[in-house]
Amino acid sequence: MSERSAESDGLGRRAIRGAAVTSAGQVLRILIQLASVVILARLLSPADFGLFAMVMSIAGIAEVFRDFGLSQAAVQAPVLTERQRSNLFWINTAIGATLAVAVFLSSWGIAALYGREELAPLAQLASVAFLLNGLTTQYRASLNRALQFRSLAITDVAAAAVGLGVGIAMGLAGTGPWALVAQLLGVSVATLALVVVFGGWLPGLPNRGVPVGGFMRFGWNMVATQMVTYVGGNVDSVVIGVRFGAAQLGIYNRAFHVVMNTANQLRAPITNVAVPILSRLQAEGARYWEFVRVGQVGLGYTIVVVLAFVIGAGVPLTDLLLGPGWAEAAPVLSLLAVAAVFQTLNSASYWVYVSKGITGPLFRYNLVSVAIKVVCILIGSQWGLIGVAIGYAVAPTVSWPISLAWISRVIEGVPTRTLAWGIVRMSLLAGWGAAFAYGAVTLTEPLAAWARVAVAALATVAAYGIAAILPVVRRDLGELRAMLRMLRRERGRLGR
Known about the structure:
The chain is mainly α. The protein is built from 21 helices and no strands.
């Protein structure tokens, strides 16, 4: 076996170990998130959630600039010296402090935009989180670069638990939207404390003689891309908040939190594993694309299966998680799950953009995709809350082919047809699973919500089981079984 092949196989094993650890941690984090949804939806009103969403849909822009793309730049860089890492730390900290001040000063403008004076003090307190997150950025990047996935998983789970505890305590005290700001700060403080402990390093003093220009150029393209993505990801909240008010935004926000935030949390650890591994395989041609393809298949038979279930079981899920007072959120929940299916399946394209360092083309593609999303949402808003959700769902179904075409223009050897067929195949399977789930929900209408949810889940699994008679599905499942066998072989080495 060649040295390069041995290194590639070693990275594959580390990828699987990393995926195992991060997946276990993410399951716990999602359970905490669901507990947050269930408990806080019963302690706070839709308007409380809407007020917090109004603040964060505008103030959250600062979070994009706080990172400045330097975390991904640090992970992707072939070489990163201690002095470069220290300089990046101070740059991110300075950006975080500047943005905290900017959010504080813009708080009155946020209140004026929505015509709600109570938003100003909420934004002022929330501004502290941007400073804390600026301090955290390079610590997280260092752990990611070093493939310390266990430390990252522990950090995310523990911080989420701390934030939930703070939020519940404030909610029980009757503080309304302040409970959500307190939860945000609780997560930020706990995350900072833990990454410092796990990171095991302290930054040196800034040094002007240490070159960071390459990181800044990479970061600028990344932040421009993330900025465009942020605008596209929050235009729905701004439109709903301005046109339909806090209560309607609160309903939409809770559905969004259940579906999109959960999907993002499921995808994030996989991306955190995929990007550093693929970054090390940039020169390996076929081996690189094999990792991308298998990763796409893995997404299709894990996260997308859950989303198919959510599409079909939106009504009882909403009743179970949010309670009877949130019935309007059910169709929004299902429509957002449709959007999440295509976003998830297209995640492999994002891995390629970042791991190959082609952030310029990523930025230009995002300009197009966000323009499509904005147009779809603005058109949909003519029909109210449901229309916005429909627009949000239509946009990624239109955008993903453009992404693959864009990549094939700037990189040679892209298996475009294979990746496109993977997205089509997995989305069709998701529709098949959603149809079974919806049928189960319809047939069990007299039952309690938890029973309907359970039956819908079984129906979704049955749908995929029936689909396994197709040769292409059996081949996909065979590849996944091979991955699981490798995982079992590597389980004893997780502590290494």
